[in-house]
Amino acid sequence: MSTFAQMIENITPEIYESLKTAVEIGKWSDGRKLTVEQKELSLQAVIAWEMQNLPEDQRTGYMGPQECASKSAPIANILFKSDSVH
After folding, report:
1. H-only helix segments in 1-86
2. Phi, psi values for residue 27, rounded to 5°
């Protein structure tokens, strides 16, 4: 495989699950520990595969629509009082 993109196209759902598990636990299925480089490349492969094969809400890191809690509470205006004289 000459490019990363070609490699991603050849990842099956089973390989994807194996890579994802390896990244999550830091070990290959045979118990060997992933190197830092293997973990980085595997995570990149997982994310790239998900972008091509999964809806956004099922991808790694998806947080969904969220609203800041402070957005719903009114904030008192302490700079200008409504009873100030103009």
Report:
1. 4-9, 13-25, 36-53, 69-72
2. -140, 150
**Beta-carbon contacts of residue 44 (< 8 Å; ≥ 6 apart):** 4
Distance (Å, whole) CA 48 – CA 46: 6
Of 41, 40, 58, 42, the closest CA to residue 50 belongs to 58
47, 59 Cβ separation under 8 angstroms: yes
Residue 17, SS3 per DSSP: helix
Burial, 23: exposed, middle or buried (Cβ in 10 Å; 0-12, 13-18, 19+)?
buried
- What pLDDT score does 86 carry? 54
pLDDT in tens, 25-53: 999 999 999 999 999 999 999 999 999 99
Q: What is the pTM of this model?
A: 0.69
**Secondary structure of residue 22 in the 3-state scheme:** helix
Query: DSSP of 53-65, one letter per residue?
Result: HS-GGGSTT---S
